[in-house]
Amino acid sequence: MTPSNSPFARTPPPSYYAVIFSSQRSAGGAAEYDRMAERMVELAAQQPGFLGVETVRGADGFGITVSYWSSEEAISAWKAHLEHQAAQTAGKKLWYSDYQLRVAKVERAYGKTPGDQPNAK
């Protein structure tokens, strides 16, 4: 799960799945959208197989949220969750002028770890 002091999800060693949700927000309803988005992250974190989430949104309303899951079954269960379905319907009708959702299997993952120091010359 994503620690509150870091924007990075703390995922296990691969393999696992990433659900990549790219969206363009439409005008209006920002406060309601923010509440719903916060609730969806809170609710997803309670679902079996949830591993973490990373999300960003630009000033122009374009955003990308990547949620990480242990299995395709966990992703399917999240998609079918009743409260999540209500949020999906609201998003299509009220909050998104466009969106794309992609599911990918993560085979490799690497990066800088906390505490890494740059090479001194």
Structural summary, described in words:
- With 121 residues, the chain is α+β, with helices and mostly antiparallel strands.
- The protein has a single domain, classed as Alpha-Beta Plaits.
- The protein contains 3 helices and 4 strands.
- The protein has helices spanning 30-44, 72-80, 82-95; strands at residues 16-25, 50-57, 62-69, 96-106.
- Strands 2-3-1-4 form a 4-stranded antiparallel sheet.
- β2 (50-57) and β3 form a beta hairpin.
- α1 (30-44) packs antiparallel against α3 (82-95).
- 11% of the residues are buried.
Write the layout of secondary structure elements.
Blueprint: E1 16-25, H1 30-44, E2 50-57, E3 62-69, H2 72-80, H3 82-95, E4 96-106
Antiparallel strand pairs: 1-3, 1-4, 2-3
Helix pairs in contact: 1-3
Notable characteristics:
4 strands, globular, 121 residues, alpha+beta
Low-confidence stretches: none
SSE succession: EHEEHHE
CATH class: Alpha Beta
Examine the coordinates and then state which fold CATH places here, giving the name of the CATH topology.
Answer: Alpha-Beta Plaits
Number of strands: 4
> What is the strand arrangement across the widest sheet?
2-3-1-4
**What's the assembly state of these chains?**
single chain
- Give the terminus-to-terminus CA distance: 36 Å
β-sheet strand percentage: 25-35%
